[in-house]
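**User:** I keep going back and forth on a fold encoding question. It is easy to fool oneself when nobody else works the same problem. Could you pick a protein and write out its sequence and tokenised fold? Could you put it straight underneath, so I can go through it closely?

**Assistant:**
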Amino acid sequence: MMDHIWDTFYTGQRRMARFPTAMLTGQDYRLEFAGTPPQKVRYGLEARTGGTKILVPYPVAGTY
């Protein structure tokens, strides 16, 4: 991935990273992050029928 922003020490991205995945509708999922959860997350579901539930546990209550 290319660096789009250089801020003297840190590099950053202008676009959000994408992680497409295939999921079955009608099931519950648990999404855990290996590190600090991001401040902005966008989910999308493209399905003709059904839905799903995604649980995102945060390390500290009230963090976000």
